[in-house]
Design a protein that fits this description.
Length: 72
């Protein structure tokens, strides 16, 4: 956020989908704020596979078992 970004708001969300036991996700946000009158939020979430993620993987050709095992 620059010096002239008065009243600006930003929300950054990081989501990762691990497809095998070697995958990893590292988040190093580089948020540069040059104005005290702005709001910036950052979040990263790790959780169980959702029905939407399972559907996504199955729509890409994985069986339900392969999809569940690849993420879990």
């Amino acid at each position: 956020m620059g010096h002239n970004s008065q009243g600006s708001k930003s929300h950054v969300q990081c989501d990762g989908l691990m497809m095998d036991d070697r995958s990893r996700s590292d988040t190093w946000p580089d948020i540069q704020i040059q104005n005290p009158h702005v709001t910036v939020a950052h979040e990263a979430v790790v959780g169980k596979i959702s029905d939407e993620q399972l559907f996504y993987l199955q729509s890409r050709g994985l069986s339900e078992e392969e999809a569940a095992c690849s993420v879990g």
